[in-house]
Structures
1.
Amino acid sequence: MSAAEISDYDFRALRDAIRERFGIDYDDSKQYLLQSRLQARLIKRSVPDFGAYCRFLSSHRDREDEWNELASLLTNNETYFFRERAQLDILVGPVLDESLRARGHLRVWSAACSTGEEPYTLAMMLLESHRVARGQISVLASDLSPRALERGGAGFYRELSFRVCPPEIVQRYFRPSESGFALSDEVKRLVTFSRLNLLDSPGVAAVGPVDAIFCRNLLIYFDKPTQKRVVENLARALRPGGYLFLGHAESIVRLTDLYEPIVTAQAIYYRVKPR
Ligand SMILES: C[S@@+](CC[C@H](N)C(=O)[O-])C[C@H]1O[C@@H](n2cnc3c(N)ncnc32)[C@H](O)[C@@H]1O
């Protein structure tokens, strides 16, 4: 079968359906990117062109399975251990202090956790702080992509994930194997993975109440209305006064008034206002 081309009409239909379901925004400049990412799916599903593929996604009995494939295929899962360290230090510093003082435990949620490097970093840093017993912390981790979550659960990582990871951490919590590093059960046990689409308002609210949410390097893939919808969903999962951490290229200052920004010399993060 020769490679199918996507028409402008089918591109717009697919783009709108993807945005509605996942929030991910394929703007006009990404028409050919989408075409090349989906070409193999047409072959897999034995459909002759993109129009037929759109119909498959809207009405075929296996459409939900196909959407799950797309959740893995269309997401960018770039991540690594100890990414944007300054924010991590704030969690293990003032946020942990406040939570221990007020409630005696910390519940933190990595809400777009990709392959697990972010929640495992949080767990390792909490262990390294020597200030909390195992029963005082829970690290929740969720993502849209089934394939990324599977890799997170496996806890096996290659060199690239350790690009800024302190060597003593690798030594303490990982076991070298032939082609990478396997994470110790001690850390794996602290993190609970689940699948969640952050557009799903009841699903997001049901995760709460948590003390802090890391939702970093996700909003950049969404248009403004979707960004607003997601951060407002997340506000409902935070306990009153809880904290939201975004990626350093992401800001919600003019997007919603549910949060107040906290600006330090090292990082910016947000506190949800009392409701
Ligand atoms: C670039 S990764 C960020 C990983 C990590 N937070 C970090 O900063 O290193 C973005 C993640 O967002 C996930 N994602 C995309 N759309 C999503 C949605 N609607 N709900 C939940 N996760 C989503 C992707 O699957 C991907 O794993």
Note: The radius of gyration is 20 Å.
2.
Amino acid sequence: MTYDAIVIGSGLGGLSAGAHLAANGRRVLVCEQYDVAGGCSQTFRRKREWQFDVGLHYVGGVHTGDIGSVLRGLGLDGRLQWNEMDPDGFDTLRFPRHEIRVPKGWDRYTDRIAAAFPAEEQQVRRCLGTLEAIGGQLRRAGVPKSKLDYLRYPLRAPSVVAWGMRPLADLFDHHHLSQEARAVIGAQSGDYATPPSRTPVALHAGLIDHYLDEGAYYLHGGGQMLAAHLLDVIHTHGGRVRTRAHVEEIVVREGRVRGVRLKGGEQLEAGVVVSTADIKQTFLALLDPSAVSPRFRERVAGFRMATPLFCVYLGLDRDLRGAMPNTNYWCHPTYDAEDAYARAAAGELALDPTVYLTSATVKDPGCTRHAPAGCSTLELMTWATPSPEAWGVDPGSLPSGYSRGERYRERKALVAERMIDVAEEVLGDVRGHIRWQEAATPLTQTRYTLSTDGSSYGIELATDQTGPRRPSPRTPIGGLYLAGASARRGHGIVGALMGGRDAAAEVLGRDLAHEVARGAVFADIDRLTAGGPDFDPLAACRRLQDKSARAPRRRAAVAA
Ligand SMILES: Cc1cc2nc3c(=O)[nH]c(=O)nc-3n(C[C@H](O)[C@H](O)[C@H](O)COP(=O)(O)OP(=O)(O)OC[C@H]3O[C@@H](n4cnc5c(N)ncnc54)[C@H](O)[C@@H]3O)c2cc1C
């Protein structure tokens, strides 16, 4: 079978690339090695009672921002329901001596942070003023594409040029902020998992701006809903998403991509391959070493992966809707914003962890799939070391076969218990209400998505790996393009969706973002089928290994 384009990976990066290509008339195949499409946007279910999100807990920019733009272009903007989190405090920052609710809007946010630090109010206001200016300029100026764009950029985005690529710690130094004020301003760093000494100012400004500008949202039904709708765009436009299709090799001849080889030997031909496997997998595992220069391979090998996450998933026979506002808690045990990252990098388990705490039942009260009536889900996350040894695992037993080891289970339980302690400080009795508990380490992340070092954020978004220093969608190999968290747009729901569109734009030789800004809708909206009251996004994304074309069958069913 010959395709116009094969996409490796069905995370949001791959599905976005696939949907843009299919909706623009390309014959597309998305190959996913796992049984369910969606990558980190997946939800998973337990005992027919509990549903948990892997990697969509809150996002911004869903209407007028970047996510809204991608969805509009694919005709999906009216098909997804976004629940806004508490505009008076979508994040709650907890520190030993501070608790601050982060409201929508830069002015209110700045007032609250400044009020928390009366002795350094002016410095705090000036620092946040710079971040606000950068956030706004990033939003308005967009990504420069042409030479002319680059020439004009200093006029359109002067604060970005002055500060964007410098470390956040430099901005804090410049404004002589105390350690406490720095920690509070950088409190949501877990959203990108980089310490202030390496975080580009533009990254932090862009991240908080995308929440403050339009508010923070959770997707009704969970992250799988987004994957299912993108998949529907692909199938509706004659493309295919195949699960259990593990790409083992990107086939290159005479400097050009010719297709892929799947585990089991099946060969699939295409003149274009978009890889959303992380960059180390793509260049060091899927390609023959002779496909790129030794210097290029060296550069790829030298990229640092982002610090991965450890997650605890709890099903509680307690209704949290009365116990907590519609907020995420960021619970920091200290004001030292560097320490946890340094310890994870040194291979230490986090026994005094910063804990991010969120509840899908609180964010999405109208969805009955998260938990039984009167019950709740609670998801706890922290940064973690990727070191197998630290998790009590012999690296030789990877990528599977490690999870039943006693030492591994003990260590997982140890960190999980510390995190549940923190949850109890916020919510009162949690342990007495647990009806389901499980945890996922960075090793789990690798097992399910094949990511290097268990990272779901791709290569670290640090000053030396961001912007022009990050891999662009084009590669040295003809016909091979990159999208996904390791590519230029970075990680997160926004980064993955935008990066997928960027890669499709490169393949098509068009400026898709500009076309959407001018009102273009690529998908044929009237033919899209996903949605409706009984629509189950997980069922729509699962077990797509059957090679028969699904799309015509589904359309026939709808027509009937
Ligand atoms: C615990 C957690 C919480 C998060 N919370 C948020 C949040 O609240 N908000 C937010 O914006 N972001 C969040 N993120 C980040 C966000 O989910 C990810 O950065 C983003 O979804 C990554 O998309 P991707 O397409 O780059 O990669 P992935 O989702 O990892 O998809 C890559 C896919 O490629 C497949 N694959 C890899 N190699 C091959 C191969 N050789 N052959 C076939 N298939 C292959 C994998 O199986 C996987 O499905 C979170 C992530 C995690 C893990």
Note: Confidence is low (pLDDT under 50) at residues 548-560.
3.
Amino acid sequence: MQDQELLDYLKQNIDGRRLCHSIGTAHEAVRLAQRYGADRDKAYIAGLLHDVAKGKCGCELQQLASEYDISIDDVEADNIELIHGRLGAAMIKKQLGIDDEEILSAIRWHTTGRRGMTLLEKIIYIADLIEPSRDFIGVDDIRSMAYEDIDLAMRKALQEVIGFVKKRGFALHPNSIEAYNDYTKEEKESI
Ligand SMILES: [Fe+2]
Ligand SMILES: [Fe+2]
């Protein structure tokens, strides 16, 4: 599939600000893929399309979830935006015919993370947070760790995201807690 076709598809689904974030994420993901020896084309496509289901209102998300047969758990019901990763993966599979499981799972899990993340899943999770337009306290720490040790960057990134979710008063998704525990455990084991 041509780059222009992907961009056209994206423009039909998201606004200009999010398009800028998506292009930034795609380029960051390619740089990380180069650094860690992952597939650059898959990193680009997953980065570009990761937020294709973001920015839709709650009603539309509910409707699309039922259309794509996506289950909604209690935490997601309280914060329906959380399903945009799983929904985005389902959308591009059906609408664009992308059936590469590495790309789909990187998009599916970029919102919550999960236990035992693959390299491409980590790359998209981190690229999403550190692409150039991102600006939050702690982003520079994650940026500098990302190219040194992606697992250390994941731990820091999950810490920041979990802190942000708590501050906003939302419940933590079990997948995010399991992802965080994964990296905490890894760090302890290496001491
Ligand atoms: Fe997202
Ligand atoms: Fe994003």
Note: Residues 50-51, 54, 84, 110-111 surround fe (ii) ion (ligand 1) (CB under 6 Å).
4.
Amino acid sequence: MKKFDAVVIGAGMSGIACALRLQSFGLNVALIEKHRVLGGLNSFFQRVKKSPTGQRLGIRQFDVGLHALTNFAKKGSRNRPLMKILRQLRIPYDSLLLKEQNYSLIHLDNRKIKFDNNIETFIKEVESFFPDQLEGFNKLVEVVKNSTLDTSDTLYVSSREKIKEFISDETLQEMIFLPVFYYGSSWEDDIDFKQFCIMFQALYLEGFSRPYGGIRTLFNILKEKMQSLNIVRMMGVAVQKIEQKLDHHILELSNGEVISTKKVFSSIGYPETQRVLGKKVNKESVGKLGFVEVQIFYNDLLEKKLPTICFYNKTKKFVYRNPDTLIDTDSAIICSPEGYDEFEGKEGILRVTFLANYKLWKELDSKQYDEKKEYVEKIARDLICEVYPEHNRKECFIDTFTPLTVEKYTSHMNGAIYGATKKFLNGDIGIKDLFLIGTDQGYLGITGSILSGISMANMNGFPTRHNP
Ligand SMILES: Cc1cc2nc3c(=O)[nH]c(=O)nc-3n(C[C@H](O)[C@H](O)[C@H](O)COP(=O)(O)OP(=O)(O)OC[C@H]3O[C@@H](n4cnc5c(N)ncnc54)[C@H](O)[C@@H]3O)c2cc1C
């Protein structure tokens, strides 16, 4: 039987970062991934378009997750999450080839607010459109700047209630929440105030960037690191069962192998980890929020700069819930991966993301499923026309994923990207030497999940006299 000091389950962002950090402590580490491709929720894929007669019409590369790398930091900045992860993983800043966002837009009802990587832009918008809210908004910014995360603090504080201490205008409240919920709330219609502060910092105080070349640029760096550190990678292999022994764990794998390890770091989610531990999965521990995304390639994207991300809500009140229809057409994100510095080419993509109901998608047969995807694609096109009426609409390629796609490729129950509302900030789920990392540990997004992998490895993987 192969023996390891640590096994990391899942080669998404948190798993890769965790394995790299553990190996740098001199541990013998295995990284086990069910899928054949790295990245999990932040992977990449390609699609071939064929004519009805099977003739190959074209091929395009897609990113799964990367709308934006949050927590942007300029080279040389200090005390920023992005700088911390680069330092801990020994990745040179310049190798990421980061491009900053043009600007993003919050579009609610008929109101629009701009923000970019300088919070002063947002503050000026508040001053122009909500002058009586400026003082409260500035106070909120200060509270977020001074907030620190106490991982032992498990008390839930409703942000919808808390924000009233600073902002009395309901439209501005909704506008602040729109990006925050869409980019990181696993709660319906609210978010714990601790998470709110993390997201506010990540989106509004630090902002968005994108590696030139997309997520592959980051993966190429991480892959090279893994190769140089000789991490054992098992791709296309799922962990099927974990058996807890006195001072080690036995793992049964889908390729028939059985391995032994002192420590397990699981990035697959809390209920999913419970499942491989053979424990009962509580319905409440499974996330409710799923998404559909339509990615449309255009031959000729706008010459003028598009907003990087438009957070859209049709009505005055933003509802962020599992919809009771296939998708919620009242709100969406429109992301333009070309909306970063120096868009050089003519062809470009727009990505439209809607809240979606996993259960309703699951009930469809394959013919209905394809029809409904086409229906959603039409809604996405119509929304683009409405939000960007001047947009040149010469479409050349399209692809759509649903909560079922997310479930198929990442094994997250319900295709819930942000997992459940219960998070385990110290990684401890009550099993000795097994730690949760990634989404259900509580740090979301690309930067967040990398930070999660690193901090859980630092806290629980570092060999000490007491913790050999
Ligand atoms: C459409 C979309 C857009 C997004 N946009 C952004 C964005 O713009 N900015 C941002 O910061 N974040 C974004 N995210 C979120 C971000 O991608 C995730 O928060 C992050 O990638 C989560 O990483 P993780 O390591 O926690 O989990 P995952 O990526 O889910 O990794 C878990 C891995 O475990 C594997 N696995 C599951 N079960 C097993 C098993 N039994 N055995 C072995 N392996 C297993 C899975 O295949 C998967 O690879 C987006 C996500 C999506 C889907």
Note: The chain has two domains: 2-43+213-286+420-460, 50-70+100-211+287-410.
